Amino acid sequence: MPSNQKSKNKKNASSAAKKNTVSKKSSSAATEKKSSNSNVSSKKKNAVKKETTQKKASIQEKTIKSSASNKGKISKQNQVGSKSSKKKQSTTKKVPKFSTISNVKEDSKVDVSKESEKKVVKGDLTPKSKDVDKNRIQKVGNLKSVFQTIQNKFVKKKSRKTVSKSGKKVSTIPKTRGKKTEVATTKKSLEITPKSKKWLICISVICGLIILLEAGYFIYHQIERERNTIYYDSLNSLIIDDTDIVAVGSGNFKYSKYNDYTKGLEKAKFIKYDSSGEIIFEKMYDKGINTTFSSVISVDDGYIVVGSGEFSEEEQEEGGREAIIIKYDKEGNIVWEKYYQVVTNTRFNKVIATADGYVAIGQSIYANMEMGNHTTGGGIIVKYDLDGNEVWHNNHGGMKSGNFNDIVEVNGDFYVVGKDATDSGNLVKFNKDGEYQWHKNYSYTDGIGFTGIVSLDQALYVVGSKKILPEGTGDDDNRDTTNTDALLVKYDLNGEIIFEKNFGGSNYERYNSILAYRDELYVVGHTSSKDAGLKINTDGELMTGIIVRYDSEGNILKKEALGGSNNDNLTDITTDSVSLYISGYSNSDDGNITTAINNGKDYFGKMIKLDFKFRTLMIK
């Protein structure tokens, strides 16, 4: 072979070695072999060229396999037949590695037929196939797949071309207009461009923000729900013990410094103040589910407290309660406690001390207004000895609604007030052994009935509320009304009415408690009437606390509204002979009984100290 031909062959071999990433050592060996065998037959020359081409194809195949998924099935590359094709392949630049999408589903596949060919086009390696496998795109079912779908949308797809046997370039994916062509793709067929990366970052940020917004929306509404919930705290009764003030009630201790917030549960409350109103202790009765204390008295070595509570999930569902009587020592520690239940729903409303024990009164009826037992249900009265053991009990009143609210001892007998039926107040007398003597009904009261009784100069003074009905209304008529007046009734010891006095306007009033001091009477309660002769700030429907002083003949000596523009109610009154002490609750953030923590929404128990001219001395 001529020397110039040898030089040309040497030059072409060197060029092919550089452009197809064949190692210098292999290329040098091939060139050396060609130079030393210049007279070899054309058949041997073709075999050398074929071997070199196969090595190139093997290197390319390894490059493809190393960048593709292990699970993708790629057929072996076919040899390119024509000399022109070999020449073009030998002059192809070094193949760069292409980007892949790491989270393409594992079962994504491309079917490659035996006739299919793979071509390096413009620096990209893309497996081609004439028969594209369709209907392989699965539905996206989770957030990861959502990101994958968005990612695929912005991935730049390289042009796909293949070479037919005749050497003509043929597009394997037809162009369509207005019609989507579903293509199953592998990791090797997609490349993330800088532009698509920016879009993916934007989409990821937006999705993240949406998730955060949804979480924030949930948290916000939880806070709003918490904020819009009304929280209750009430003082139902109080006494003076030497210079200390002792009160009981219930609440959830949301604003307490001494007990944990019970959130959704009502718990009985026992609190003691010194003479300046500073809290000595605050005790929560943490047994049971929902509990409340309704009355407290002082004894030589402690306090007797009564109330009621729910003590099991079953009773909570049925609305059932058990009455409670507890003895505390002076430091607020429980000495003993007793439970009492006649029928499903039982509670104690009041307790008084006797020479040899305690007498508690209240109510016991079936829950959910079921038929009660008249021989045991209704208003109840129970005598205990000094150690809390039951001595006797009795009852009176309607099987569904009978109730006792207050009691007084006069000449060794017990006079009890409450209600009999739905709107019938009653006064009942029991002797010292708990035996029934007589009763007097009063028509028509509200749903609570008579709520307070005291004795003064061998007479009984009873307070409550009276329905103001159209003239001529009888027992068979509808007696629903929003117009009730606060009521004061004077009875003799035989149960005969001496006089009755009403106080109120065109809406709702009632007296809750009464105190007899010297020859005067002090009553507390609430009103919702703007025309009752008191300066009130409500809309005519919300309650405002009231205090009224009467003489023994039922004449009003002084009256005063205590409260603001929201709901205020006064529940009990007592005295230490120097000042008046009143318990109650309020959710007004204005008026004359507000404190620093009033917020105009939540209800706060109130302890109010007044002088006898009704001037405020202290509010706690």
What characteristics describe this protein?
4-stranded antiparallel β-sheet; alpha+beta; 7 helices; about 20% helix; about 35% strand; about 625 residues; globular; 3 domains
What does the model show?
The chain is an alpha+beta fold. It folds into 3 domains: 41-172 and 179-192, no CATH class; 229-236 and 273-450, no CATH class; 466-472 and 491-620, no CATH class. The chain has helices at residues 3-19, 24-36, 42-67, 83-90, 143-153, 194-228, 313-318; strands at 119-121, 124-126, 161-163, 169-171, 233-241, 244-251, 267-273, 279-285, 291-299, 302-309, 322-328, 334-340, 345-354, 357-365, 378-385, 390-396, 403-410, 413-419, 424-430, 436-443, 452-455, 460-467, 484-491, 497-503, 509-517, 520-527, 544-551, 556-562, 568-575, 580-586, 604-610, 616-619. The strands form 9 sheets. The protein has a 4-stranded antiparallel β-sheet with strand order 5-6-7-8, with no helix packed on it. Strands 9-10-11-12 form a 4-stranded antiparallel β-sheet, with no helix packed on it. A hairpin with a 5-residue loop joins β23 (484-491) and β24. It is globular.
Radius of gyration: 48 Å
Mean pLDDT: 75
| Sheet of most strands | 4 strands, antiparallel
Number of domain units: 3
Uncertain segments of ≥5 residues (pLDDT<50)?
A: 1-45, 63-147, 153-190, 221-225
Strands, count: 32
Biggest β-sheet: strands ordered side by side in the sheet: 5-6-7-8
Into which percent range does the helicity of residues fall? Answer: 10-25%
Overall form: globular
Which structural class fits the helix and strand makeup? alpha+beta
